[in-house]
Design a protein that fits this description.
343 residues; 45% helix
Length: 343
């Protein structure tokens, strides 16, 4: 593992001791394979962030902890790395802990480990659960600010939420689906990854409320607890299509959109309207191919930039109170994909 970094820098990036890094770099053995992988990833992350080391200012080590499908965590990492050079006056360095599935206690354990080793701040997407809120409280007491991303923990001690207004997004999806369906009496499939995520719950509430108010005769079906993973989404989608022969539209809150469309194809069923969230690689390809009708989008790079600024403010590096406002919701068609999403 050739590298130009001091052992201390690698150890801090990986969250391990300098002695452990020394053993791995000198191939002395006795280190778990998972720890070796963490050190390799730390060197990779330092390589990506090397250009920022030329910037003047305080160095902020922040942690990004997320339970989400790989396609979204990859988009978050890319968005943050694009924003790193513009984050003045501080130099922001980042560590990542991403998982597609997990129990809230596992997330709480990760947060407690960060509290023990130290961090300037945490950007968090996690289930709304007592264990997670308790861990956020312990971080707050340790002086480590937490910013929630995309899915909020409003009753925790987080300092701010960054992301779209999820209820408005759900209502917007209801409007779009019904514009596409018109007078057809088609049923709409609402697909969530897990109802324990506040952001997904808020989107569903907004969607169902708008349907009840404006289109009370529109029937709905739901799938959930898939974690947004393609294999689980596909199985659940096949099942709900078999139970309801009138499903002809989808509002996908939790992802796995390619799997949902594969289920429609397998059952030889038409999908006349499909509203999704986020412009990850899968959704860009599906939108450009005409398989998605529209995508509800907010600028993830803007969100990551704002989250880092809030952490700087919480640490006293920037003046002024922490003020947040929901990110604007954009309705994206195949002809209006923003340039920043194409990267």
């Amino acid at each position: 593992m050739p590298h130009p970094y001091p052992i201390r820098e690698i150890a801090r990036q990986a969250g391990v001791s300098e002695a452990t890094v020394d053993r791995v770099l000198n191939h002395r053995g006795g280190v778990r394979s998972s720890t070796v992988n963490d050190i390799r990833q730390a060197i990779t992350d330092l390589d990506r962030q090397r250009s920022q080391l030329r910037l003047n200012g305080r160095v902020f080590m922040i942690d990004i902890v997320m339970q989400t499908p790989d396609r979204f965590s990859a988009a978050v990492r890319t968005a943050l790395e694009h924003e790193l050079p513009s984050l003045r006056p501080a130099v922001v360095r980042s560590r990542f802990d991403f998982r597609e599935q997990g129990h809230p206690a596992e997330i709480a354990g990760v947060l407690d480990a960060i509290a023990r080793r130290g961090s300037r701040g945490i950007i968090l997407k996690a289930p709304e659960a007592p264990e997670v809120s308790a861990a956020v409280l312990r971080l707050s007491e340790a002086g480590i600010p937490v910013v929630t991303l995309v899915s909020d923990l409003p009753f925790s001690k987080r300092v701010a939420y960054v992301g779209m207004d999820n209820r408005s997004a759900g209502a917007t999806a209801a409007y779009l689906v019904n514009q596409w369906l018109g007078e057809r009496r088609s049923r709409v499939l609402v697909a969530l990854s897990r109802s324990v995520f506040r952001g997904e719950e808020e989107r569903e509430i907004g969607f169902r409320s708008a349907i009840r108010e404006r289109w009370p005769d529109r029937a709905l079906a739901e799938i959930t607890d898939s974690d947004g993973l393609d294999s689980s989404v596909y199985r659940l989608a096949l099942g709900v299509l078999d139970r309801h022969d009138d499903i002809e539209a989808v509002y996908s809150i939790g992802g796995g959109n390619r799997a949902i469309l594969d289920a429609f194809d397998t059952r030889r069923r038409p999908c006349r309207a499909f509203i999704a969230h986020d412009l990850d690689r899968d959704n860009r390809e599906l939108l450009q191919a005409g398989r998605l009708s529209a995508v509800l989008y907010h600028d993830l790079r803007r969100d990551m930039h704002r989250a880092c600024q809030i952490i700087m403010q919480a640490n006293g590096a920037l003046d002024g109170p922490v003020v947040t406002a929901p990110a604007p919701i954009q309705v994206i068609t195949p002809f209006s994909i923003p340039p920043e999403a194409m990267t």
